[in-house]
């Protein structure tokens, strides 16, 4: 399976994704949604090309949420929506999930709360050795991927800001944990939870098919 790296179209797309999730709840038809977005300029973008590009990326991510999670996203408060969109991102992009799991979460569980440039460099080179898609990236693309990755982490609440890489573990509501567990409990790692807590949640929601 190809190692996707197309997340550089934008960052978390919080407000835009919620708007599209609400449209989906109304329409249940992506073709109608596409037409409405363009006709009404729902995302408030300056050009049609930008709007089409962002809608395509948001749809790719939302398609990886379960119907239950997507429906919840449409009516969620922005803080809860942020967590569901992080779930959508990590389900879409292994590169981001693996960075959170292998670097951010690993450091946090060892009480090391600062991500260093060297941490990212080691991670990137390890992925480049495994995936031709990473190894063949131009310097410009490498810089963009790094920039957007840390912006996503900041907008998700996992680090202080895109410039300050201090890890700031989020408080995740139980409803979000339940939704994530129903989809695949391994993605609870994206919220920096330790293995024992993930196992506890798996057992709690086992009757829901987790």
Structural features, described:
With 210 residues, the chain is mainly α. It has a domain at 8-76. Helices cover 65% and strands 0% of the residues. Helix 1 crosses helix 5 (78-92) and helix 6 (94-109) packs across helix 7 (117-130). The longest helix is centred in the last third of the chain and has 17 residues, at 139-155. The radius of gyration is 17 Å and the shape is globular.
- Rg, Å, rounded: 17 Å
Oligomeric state of this protein: single chain
**Overall pLDDT:** 93
Largest sheet: none
Low-confidence stretches: none
**Broad shape:** globular
Order of helices and strands: HHHHHHHHHHH
N→C terminal distance: 25 Å
Number of E-state strands? 0
Structure at a glance:
The protein has 210 residues and is an all-alpha fold. The chain is 65% helix and 0% strand.
Key words describing this protein structure:
single chain, 210 residues, mainly alpha, 65% helix
What secondary-structure arrangement, pairings included, does this model have?
Elements: H1 14-27, H2 30-40, H3 48-62, H4 67-75, H5 78-92, H6 94-109, H7 117-130, H8 132-135, H9 139-155, H10 174-184, H11 195-204
